[in-house]
């Protein structure tokens, strides 16, 4: 299991959502974020953060879908991080592990 975290420009959110939907990734958490860079002329920037918990068989297609949109947008400021996820729990069904994702 992995946690994919993408920091993108808010204007790219709908394109990323559509690309993820096309590869059958439909569950995600989306929130507003702020980027901070002291070396930039405008140190505080608006961003959107997407968190997606995926099983290993969905990892490549998830990252590729996000990467395709960001490459087409020629966005050099967006980032995608892939983190290990050691546990997942669905509270309402009492399911644990990869099934909970």
What report would you give on this structure?
It is a single chain. Helix 1 packs across helix 2. This protein is globular. The protein is of the alpha+beta class. Strands 2-3-1-4 form a four-stranded antiparallel beta sheet, with helices on one face. A two-stranded antiparallel ribbon has the order 5-6. Strand 2 and strand 3 form a beta hairpin. It is built from two helices and six strands, in the order βαββαβββ. 27% of the residues lie in helices and 36% in strands.
The outline comes out as globular
For the sheet with most strands, the description reads: 4 strands, antiparallel
Number of strands: 6
Mean of all residue-level pLDDT scores: 91
Count of alpha and pi helical runs:
2
How widely separated are the two ends? 8 Å
Derived structural class: alpha+beta
Question: Helical proportion?
Answer: 25-40%
Strand order of the largest sheet: 2-3-1-4
Radius of gyration: 15 Å
Uncertain parts:
none
Encode the helix/strand succession as letters: EHEEHEEE
Relative strand content: 35-45%
Question: Which features does this protein show?
Answer:
101 residues; four-stranded antiparallel sheet; two-stranded antiparallel ribbon; 27% helix
